[in-house]
Amino acid sequence: MLYASETPDFLESTHEWRRLFAETWGTFLLVVVAAGAAVVGAQSGGAISLGMKVVAPGLMVMAIIYFMGAVSGAHLNPAVTLAFAVRRNFPWSRVLGYITAQIIGGIAAASFLRALFGIQGLLGATTPGPGVSDFKALAMEVLLTTGLVSTILGTASGARNIGSNGALAVGGYIALAGLWAAPISGTSMNPARSFAPDLIRGDMGTTWIYVVGPVLGAIIAVGFEWILKGKPTAAGTLAARGNLK
User: Fold this and answer.
1) Rg of the Cα trace of the chain?
2) Per-residue b or e along 116-140, where b marks 16 or more CB atoms closer than 10 Å to that residue's CB
3) Domain-by-domain residue ranges, the chain?
4) Residue 235: in which H helix or E strand, if any?
5) Whole-model pTM above 0.90?
6) What's phi and psi for 63, nearest 5 deg?
7) 206: CB partners within 8 A, 6+ apart
8) Burial level of 8, CB count in 10 A (0-12/13-18/19+)?
9) How far is 166 from 159, CA to CA, in rounded Å?
10) How far is CA 36 from CA 83, 86, 108, 117, 197, in A?
11) Is residue 242 a contact partner of residue 18, using CB atoms and an 8 Å limit?
12) How would residue 159 be classed by pLDDT, with cut points 50, 70 and 90?
């Protein structure tokens, strides 16, 4: 029996390399902007404000959904891929490939920033804010990721993740989350976004927060989506896997 996401055209592997390339390139762009905002801010002596730093990745995600959402679903985030799989909109057999592509894209972006600017701005790492405990940062990442994945699943269920509504909603949520919560946890909501700078700068002391938090948040969001809408929909499946034939 096929999962809801395992439609015959998606099981056809002809275009899988396009999907994986899209996830790699899209995650590269996301991380180079999200981490790069802090790096360039430090390099420029503070020319980039906190508001600019947190709005930039939201705008980048919006653009990515527009230009490649139909190719791979524009997950760009291991927590999102996991959520779509748990929700049964995306086959588990494709999860490892997507997450690997996302991590490669993130590492490539962090390496690019390191080559250009060194370790300026901690290479854009997400860390708990001054005076913020690891537990508080973890709780914030769980909450923020729950909201992010709820937004993604909610727009996807109406086949809007590939269109304008999904792009605006997801990009807007990322900017909004950063505007009020960045000083607490850095508002990562994405293990690939946090893992890559930590790996390249050689400090993974708090990386676990930005893996555990988003994963827990994603699972909670899937539970909320079941409460709100019940079984997965064909529209959600289309949004999760793109529309390549």
Assistant:
1) 17
2) ebebbbbbbbbbbeeeeeeeebbbb
3) 13-241
4) helix 234-241
5) yes
6) -65, -40
7) 127, 128, 134, 137, 198
8) exposed
9) 8
10) 27, 32, 12, 10, 10
11) no
12) very low
Structure tokens at 72: 């791979």
Q: How many residues does the chain have?
A: 245
Structure tokens at 134: 């690891």
Residue-wise pLDDT tens digits, 176-204:
999 999 999 999 999 999 999 999 999 99
Count of CB atoms situated within 10 Å of the CB of 18: 14
Is the Cβ–Cβ distance between 78 and 192 less than 8 Å? yes
**162 falls in which pLDDT band (50, 70, 90)?**
very low
Q: How far apart are CA 80 and CA 168, in angstroms?
A: 17
- CATH of span 13-241: 1.20.1080.10
- Torsion angle, CA of 162/166/170/176, rounded to 10 degrees? 150
